[in-house]
């Protein structure tokens, strides 16, 4: 007995027992499920291809961005190093200025004391 794709294997066959009919019915259901699974598999393969394309595009964009960042870093590094050197010089000058200010305050306090001693001498 030959069954082609277009024929329904579950139709009543002459001399087929109920068991044979159930087996053929189950085989037809399995064939239908396999066909559906293959259709889903093709759709998933397409989706994976789309995702792969998008991932490749994102990878290219990320690589481009990294290259730009590295380029800008090379451009700005000398500027940043110069700014840091200037800040260090300003910090040293500020520290020196603070020391001078404390010295002046000390001198003023000493002069105030001497003036007080002189005023007491004159008044006495």
Description:
- By secondary structure, the protein is mostly helical.
- It has one helix at residues 18-123.
Give helix % range.
Answer: over 70%
Q: How far apart are the first and last residues' alpha carbons, in Å? A: 145 Å
What oligomeric state do the depicted chains represent? single chain
Mean pLDDT: 88
Annotation field: number of helices: 1
Largest sheet: none
H/E series, N to C?
Answer: H
What is the total tally of β strands? Answer: 0
Radius of gyration: 47 Å
Helix/strand-derived category reads mainly alpha
Shape: rod-shaped
List keywords for this structure.
124 residues, rod-shaped, single chain, 1 helix, mainly alpha, disordered N terminus
Write the layout of secondary structure elements.
Blueprint: H1 18-123
Question: What's the quick description here?
Answer:
This protein is mainly alpha-helical. It is 85% helix and 0% strand.
């Amino acid at each position: 007995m030959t069954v082609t794709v277009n024929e329904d294997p579950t139709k009543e066959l002459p001399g087929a027992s109920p068991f044979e009919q159930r087996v053929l019915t189950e085989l037809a259901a399995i064939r239908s499920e396999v066909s559906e699974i293959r259709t889903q598999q093709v759709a998933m393969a397409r989706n994976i291809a789309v995702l792969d394309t998008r991932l490749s595009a994102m990878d290219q964009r990320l690589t481009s961005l990294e290259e730009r960042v590295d380029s800008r870093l090379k451009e700005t590094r000398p500027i940043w190093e110069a700014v840091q050197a200037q800040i260090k010089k300003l910090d040293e000058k500020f520290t020196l200025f603070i020391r001078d200010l404390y010295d002046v305050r000390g001198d003023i306090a000493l002069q105030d004391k001497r003036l007080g001693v002189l005023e007491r001498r004159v008044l006495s």
